[in-house]
Design brief:
Aminopeptidase, 185 residues, alpha+beta, eight-stranded mixed beta sheet
């Protein structure tokens, strides 16, 4: 499935070339800090990465009903990251979403905002969810701005697993919610 936008396309098929991107991205420290600010950066060797891929192939795949990932490509075809939903609760009509644009040259260009918008529109329209949640931490200001631009409202702020990041910044977990508008039902 492909979900096209003006600047990006979401695709849920993986290409062989994506593996090289993931290996390169796994060795970039900056995005991993924003993803896991309380975990020290640990690059991965080619051998360890290949072993991890082999182990993942043997693991049972999670059901699309629980979580799902789309790759983010620019309109020109450059693979720049991924978005996903997880912790899907069909009874509540709710799920969490996440995004990752690992390379700094893709940041602050609106690609993430469009990718999140495409995903939430898909979840509201095609999966008939009533609310979508997003979690980040106080130091991830780009994600906070993206959430706000996409119509999310902060509803919970709580202590993180550890009080400080590996760089010494105070950590708080922030959860945002976006509910379907009554006119969209």
């Amino acid at each position: 499935m492909k979900i096209p936008g003006k600047y990006v396309v979401l695709r849920d098929d993986r290409k062989e070339a994506d593996r090289e991107d993931f290996f390169r991205w796994r060795n970039l420290e900056e995005w991993q800090y924003y993803d896991e600010p309380d975990a020290p950066f640990k690059p991965i060797s080619r051998g360890a990465y290949q072993k991890r891929l082999k182990e993942r192939k043997q693991e049972p795949k999670p059901s699309i009903l629980d979580s799902h990932m789309w790759q983010i490509d620019t309109i020109a075809g450059q693979h720049v990251g991924w978005v996903s939903y997880y912790q899907l609760d069909r009874q509540l009509g709710s799920a969490f979403i996440g995004i990752c644009l690992p390379e700094e040259e893709t940041w602050n260009k609106g690609l993430g905002t469009e990718a999140i918008t495409l995903l939430i529109n898909h979840l509201f329209q095609e999966m008939e969810l009533k609310q979508i949640k997003l979690a980040t931490w106080t130091g991830n200001q780009r994600m906070v701005r993206c959430a706000e631009k996409c119509g999310f409202v902060e509803n919970i702020r709580m202590p993180h697993r550890t009080p400080f990041s590996v760089r010494g910044e105070p950590l708080e977990r922030i959860e945002f919610t976006r509910k379907i508008k009554p006119s969209q039902e």
